[in-house]
């Protein structure tokens, strides 16, 4: 069984929910897809913080649409995780107890309007680089969710970059605000790709099963190469003294990531971890009547369909 499973993976066949799969493959997918779903949903908070204070009606409408899209991404991903035999309640419970993680970046505060630009530009760029590769992941429902998500993330990235560009074309104070946002979000955005390849606990097996198609460092390098060019184009300075174009490699060299900070944040001790989780727990409790009403409606609809048959 195990050998024929790997043969299917090697032949680039998609694994579907009813197919046999090793238990560890199933658990790895539940871990990764649910963390991804939690990231989309928790990621609504730093941007949502600015919906009531967007500088114009147009910016507000765009930001509202983006934040709603992120909720939709969470929905597709939870649905994909559920095809692996775990319930939505268990997934949320794992988030609330800390058994399941979400992207470290969402534990940083959004202090100014420029942060909305930086999140859209940097965080969505980093997400896209990773997610484009995940469109070819071996598990069918995850791969298909990625196709739709990538299309929407492209619009998100453009809106973030457009905010940064507009600020950089503004007055001195606005340019300083954009630079300050880049200074604070740059290093956390590099951490989104996870530990270096040699330190990544899950990469080797996930690459063999083609759950992950490219390594953490490989994706991070692509992101740096793109983002540095985009920063230069609008007059921003990337906050890394070690950043330099390496002619031989055809890539930018960049400085060391503060892995102690990364560890601190993923263990729950970042600047906003408690606030993010508390907000989710509260919203989930407040939404109980909606879930109950939906379940009631669904039950009634099914029994009507059953009676008619
Ligand atoms: N944050 O062995 P690896 C978005 C954990 S979507 C927190 O390398 P793996 C859209 C990792 O879980 C952003 N934890 O792990 C948006 C593991 O711990 P565990 C989310 C991290 O899974 C934009 C341990 O470290 N995208 O932003 C992080 O092979 C704007 C060892 O690491 C995805 O989730 C981190 N950054 O590789 C929404 C993409 N990095 O589980 C709103 C899918 C590592 O054993 C606004 N996920 N860890 O307890 C992946 O590609 C992978 O899971 C990685 C990590 C690359 C994140």
Which descriptors apply to this entry?
binds Phenylacetyl coenzyme A; two-stranded antiparallel ribbon; 309 residues; mainly alpha
Q: In a nutshell, what does this entry contain?
A:
With 309 residues, the chain is mainly alpha-helical. 68% of the residues lie in helices and 2% in strands.
**Counted beta strands:** 2
How would the global form be characterised? globular
Strand percent estimate: under 5%
How would you sum up the major sheet? 2 strands, antiparallel
3D structure, described in words:
There is one protein chain. With 309 residues, the chain is mainly alpha-helical. It has 13 helices and two strands; from the N terminus they run H-H-H-H-H-H-H-H-H-H-E-E-H-H-H. The protein has helices spanning 2-10, 23-42, 44-48, 57-82, 88-97, 113-134, 140-168, 172-191, 203-208, 216-233, 259-269, 273-286, 288-308, and strands spanning 244-246, 251-253. The protein has a two-stranded antiparallel sheet. Helix 2 (23-42) packs antiparallel against helix 4 (57-82), helix 4 packs antiparallel against helix 7 (140-168) and helix 6 (113-134) packs across helix 10. The protein is globular and about 70 Å long. It starts with a helix and ends with a helix. The site of Phenylacetyl coenzyme A has 29 residues, from helix 2, helix 6 and helix 9.
């Amino acid at each position: 069984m195990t050998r024929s499973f790997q043969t299917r993976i090697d032949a680039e066949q998609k694994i579907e929910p009813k197919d046999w799969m090793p238990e560890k493959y199933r658990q790895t997918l539940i871990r990764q897809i649910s963390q991804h779903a939690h990231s989309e949903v928790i990621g609504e908070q730093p941007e949502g913080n600015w919906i009531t204070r967007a500088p114009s009606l147009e910016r507000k409408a765009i930001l509202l649409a983006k934040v709603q899209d992120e909720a939709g991404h969470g929905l597709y991903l939870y649905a994909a995780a559920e095809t692996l035999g775990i319930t939505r309640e268990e997934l949320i419970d794992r988030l609330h107890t800390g058994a399941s993680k979400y992207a470290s970046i969402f534990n940083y505060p959004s202090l100014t309007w420029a942060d909305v630009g930086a999140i859209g530009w940097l965080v969505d760029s980093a997400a896209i680089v990773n997610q484009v590769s995940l469109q070819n992941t071996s598990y069918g429902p995850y791969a298909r969710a990625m196709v739709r998500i990538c299309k929407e993330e492209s619009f998100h990235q453009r809106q973030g970059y457009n905010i940064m560009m507009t600020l950089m074309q503004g007055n001195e104070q606005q340019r300083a605000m954009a630079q300050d946002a880049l200074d604070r979000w740059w290093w956390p955005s590099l951490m989104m790709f996870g530990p270096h390849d040699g330190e990544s606990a899950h990469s080797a097996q996930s690459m063999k099963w083609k759950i992950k198609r490219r390594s953490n460092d490989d994706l991070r390098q692509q992101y740096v190469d793109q983002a540095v060019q985009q920063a230069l184009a609008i007059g921003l300075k990337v906050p890394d003294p070690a950043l330099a174009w390496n002619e031989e490699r055809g890539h930018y060299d960049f400085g060391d990531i503060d892995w102690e900070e990364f560890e601190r944040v993923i263990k729950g001790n970042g600047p906003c971890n408690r606030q993010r989780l508390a907000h989710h727990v509260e919203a989930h409790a407040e939404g109980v009547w909606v879930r109950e009403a939906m379940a009631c409606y669904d039950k009634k609809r099914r029994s009507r369909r059953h009676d008619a048959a």
